[in-house]
Amino acid sequence: MNKFTTLSGIAAPMPLINIDTDMIIPKQFLKTIKRSGLGVNLFDEMRYDDDRNEIPDFVLNKPQYREAQILVAGDNFGCGSSREHAPWAIADFGITCVIAPGYADIFYNNCFKNGILPIVLPQEQVDLLMKDAEKGANARIEVDLESQTITSSDGDVLTFEVDPFKKHCLMNGLDDIGLTMEKEKSIDAFEATATQSRPWV
Amino acid sequence: MSPKTLYDKIWDAHVAHEADDGTCLLYIDRHLVHEVTSPQAFEGLRMTDRTVRAPDKTIAVPDHNVPTTLDRANAATMTEDSRIQVEALDKNAKDFGIHYYPVSDVRQGIVHIVGPEQGWTLPGMTVVCGDSHTATHGAFGSLAHGIGTSEVEHVLATQTLIQKKSKNMKVEITGKLRPGVTAKDITMSVIGATGTAGGTGYVIEYCGEAIRDLSMEGRMTVCNMAIEGGARAGLIAPDEKTFEYCMGRPHAPKGAQWEAALNWWKTLYSDDDAHWDKVITLKGEDIAPVVTWGTSPEDVLPITANVPSPSDFKGGKVEAAQRSLDYMGLTAGTPLNEVEIDTVFIGSCTNGRIEDLRAAAAILKGKKIKDGLRAMVVPGSGLVRAQAEEEGLADIFKEAGFEWRLAGCSMCLAMNPDQLSPGERCAATSNRNFEGRQGRGGRTHLMSPAMAAAAAVTGRLTDVREMM
Ligand code: SF4
After folding, report:
1. Of the residues B133, B147, B430, which should be mutated to test ligand 1's pocket, given the most ligand atoms within 8 Å of the CB?
2. Interchain proximity B151–A113, CB inside 8 Å
3. Which of B283, B296, B71 is nearest to B186 (CA)?
4. Do A35 and B264 touch (CB under 8 A)?
5. How does pLDDT run across B290-305, given as a tens digit for each residue?
6. Which of A147, B272, B292, B412 has the highest local Cβ count within 10 Å?
7. In this structure, are residues B353 and B380 in contact, taking their beta carbons and an 8 Å threshold?
8. Which residues of chain B lie closer than 8 angstroms to A15, CB-CB?
9. DSSP state for residue B236 in the 8-state scheme
C-alpha cells in the first residue's frame, strides 16, 4: 500500500453534502476486475455529458483543479455502497486526502486501505479550507500526518484527530493482512474454543 | 456482571484478539461473496500465495450483474465485462473451494436473500459481505457488516475483521402500525427522522412492539436499510419467530446441536438496564405510508404530503434539496400523489422476499397496470420465485401486466440490462434513490411493495390505503 506522510497540493472544493459512492464512481465502472484505471471515471456523471465531453463547470474539469490532490467536501461524504472502487477512483485520479465534516463509515475505512487520508474537521474549519480551495491553483494546502496538522494557504494551522493504529499503518504503508497474520495464534486459539462452544457455526 | 446490549453480547463472543488501543480482531462466522466486490480480493490472495482460511464458512453467489430475463442462459444476454465478472466468481469459487450457487442453480438469488434462506445466517453470528446491505442479516440478531474489497481479502485470508467497537443506539417503534403501513415505511421513516448520517458510528438495535409484530421478512426489510441511516449494522433480538424461520433450513443445526444453539440464542437480548449511547423512539401509529421525493434516502415524506421547497431546509441541505428537485424534475408544492410515473420495479434485497410479493399481489389482484407503463417483478431468489408461482402470485402479476423475471439485483442498481433511461420516473421497492442509481438520469421514488403496486395501477404515486 502507498504511504501517506505529508502532502502539499491544490485542493478542489465540493461543498455538496451527502456525496454518495454512486456519484463518485457510477456502477457501470464496477465491472472491472482490476483496482487501477478508474481515475478517468471519477465523478463520471457530473464530469462528462452524454457525448462524453467534459462539462466545463465541473470542478475537476476546471484548469486550476485538474491536478488537485486534495478534496474539500460537504458532510457525510462517501455514503451509500461499500464499493472500494470509490477510493480506488479517487486515488487513481491523484487525490490522496479528503477533508470533510464527516464520512460514511465504510468509505472512511476503505480510504485507509488505499493510501488516502480522510480528515474530519468541524464544519467551520471545513468552511475555511473550502474558501481556501476556491482560490484555485494559487492556494496550496499542506497536510502533515505525523503532526496531524493542516496549514492553509494563509498560514492558518488546524489540527485533526486520527486513530493511532490507522495513522501508523498509513504512514508506513502497512498491509493489514500481514499484520493480522502475525496474530494467527490468537485466531487459532479462538477458533478452537468456538468450535467447542458453538459447534453449529 | 454489568448489563449488556445484544451488540455487546455478540461482540464479546467474537473477539479473537484485542490490542491495547481497543482495536479488535473480530472472528467472522459467515462470509458472503458476490461477483462485483470480490475479484480484486481473490486476485490479491493469488498474488501473495494466500488461501481462504475457512472455505466452509464462505458462500458465494452472483447477483449484481446477472440478467433477469428468461433467456439469461444465453451468454449473449450479458455484456462482456459482466460475463467476465461472473466467470471470475465461478473460477474463484472452484479454485478456493468455497460454497457456490451458480446462475444455473435454482437457489441462486440476491446474496442477502440466499444467506438467510439457506440457513447460513443464524442468530448470534458475525456475518460480513462486500456489500453495504449486509445489514439485512441483523434481522436474525446477528452482527452483520458491509465491508470493502480490501476487507473481503482480509476476511478470506484470516477469517477476521479489524474493528473497533461502535456505539449502541436503540431505535424503538412502539405500539401498532396502522393498516397499509409496512416494514418499509418504518425503516424509511426512521431515516427520515435521523438523516442519512444519523446512525454513523453506531450499531442500531430495533425494538418495540411494532418490530416484534413484524415477520422475519419484514425485519429483514427494516435492518436492510440501517445502512441508509448511516449505521453499519442493524440488529433485532431473536425470538420464537426467528427460531421458527431458521428451523429446518439446509444449513441450520439439527438435533442436539439445534438444542444447544437454541439455548444460547435465547440469551441474546439487551439486558434491561443496558447502556445506550442514543435512543430514538417513534410511535407505530404515527407512521404513514411514505415515499421519497429527492435523491437521498432521507428525503422521505408521507404520500399525503407535497413536494417540499429548498427553503424548508437549513444549511447544506438547501442546495442539496434544490439539486434533488432539479434532478427529479419536481416542483415544490406539487402533491406527491399527483406525480406521474413511467416504471415500477418490485424487487431487491429490501423487498424481494415472498411476503413482499404477496403484499404487492394483494393490491394487484384482478387489476391491470396503467396503459403504457413498464412494470417488472424480480424475485429475490429462485426459491422465492418458485414459491410465488406455486401460490399463484406470478399469475396475478402477469395478468396485471407485470414482467415476471428471474432472480437478481436487477434495476436496484442497474448493473445488468435492467435500467432506466434519462428522465424515466420509477416507483421502486429498492433502497437507494441516488442520482443515476437505476440508470443515468433515472428518477427513483422509494416505497413499499404495496405502494409500488398501487402506483402501477394508477400510473402515479398513490396512497395504497385508497385501494384497500
Ligand atoms: S438488491 Fe440492490 S442493494 Fe441489494 S445487494 Fe443487490 S444491488 Fe445491492
Report:
1. B133
2. yes
3. B283
4. no
5. 999 999 999 999 999 9
6. B412
7. yes
8. 316, 319
9. -
Q: Which pLDDT belongs to residue A137?
A: 74
Q: Which three cell numbers stand for residue A124?
A: 467551520
Question: What is the C-alpha R_g of chain B?
Answer: 21
Q: Report the C-alpha gap between B388 and B410 in whole angstroms.
A: 18
Average pLDDT over residues B213-219: 98
User: How many angstroms away from the CA of B91 is the closest CA of chain A?
Assistant: 13
Interface test with B, best of A16, A106, A166, A195 (most B CBs within 10 A): A106
What are the phi and psi torsion angles at B218 (to 5°)? -65, -40
Q: Is A10 within 8 Å of A69 (Cβ atoms)?
A: yes
Q: How far is B462 from B453, CA to CA, in rounded Å?
A: 9
Quote the CA–CA distance of B280 and B160 in Å, as a whole number. 31
Answer for the pair A10, A70: CB distance below 8 angstroms, yes or no: yes
pTM confidence score:
0.94
Q: Give me the total of CB pairs closer than 8 Å, taking one residue from chain A and one from chain B.
A: 186
- Nearest one of B456, B468, B451, B467 to B183, comparing CA atoms: B451
What are A115-140's pLDDT values in tens digits?
999 999 999 999 999 999 999 877 89
CB spacing of A82 vs B132 below 8 angstroms: yes
With the most atoms of ligand 1 within 8 angstroms of its CB, the residue from B431, B434, B438, B444 to mutate is: B431
By DSSP bridging, strand B343-346 and strand B425-428 are: parallel
CB contact under 8 A, B84 and A80: no
Residues of chain A with Cβ-Cβ distance to B157 below 8 Å are 177, 180-181
Q: DSSP character for A12?
A: E
User: In whole angstroms, how far apart are CA B94 and each of A120, B52, B134?
Assistant: 42, 12, 24
Alpha-carbon distance B283 to B303, whole Å?
18
Contact assessment for residue A194 and residue A201, using Cβ atoms and an 8 Å cutoff: yes
Q: Report d(CA B92, CA B110) in Å as an integer.
A: 18
Question: Helix, strand, coil proportions of chain A in percent (round to 5)?
Answer: 40, 20, 40
- Ligand 1 atom at shortest distance from the alpha carbon of B431: 3
Residue B65 has pLDDT above 80, yes or no: yes
